[in-house]
Amino acid sequence: MAVPKRKVSKARRDKRRSNVWKLDVPAFSKCPQCGELKAPHKVCTNCGYYKGVQVLKKEA
Fold first, then answer.
1. Domain residues for 41?
2. Other CB atoms within 10 A of residue 49 CB
3. Does position 1 have pLDDT exceeding 90, yes or no?
4. pLDDT value, residue 7
5. What is the torsional sign of CA 46, 52, 32, 27?
């Protein structure tokens, strides 16, 4: 089994672990019904449509 020859310093260890927090910004797309920005593959919170079908009843 492979064993490290030298102790990994705290700085080197923390540099390696520091990339975890860099998360991608969620992508947004325009709703074809109302043009509002929404998350892809989700129901539009503004108009209630998903793939051209009204899923949620929204009062105008």
1. 26-55
2. 18
3. no
4. 95
5. positive
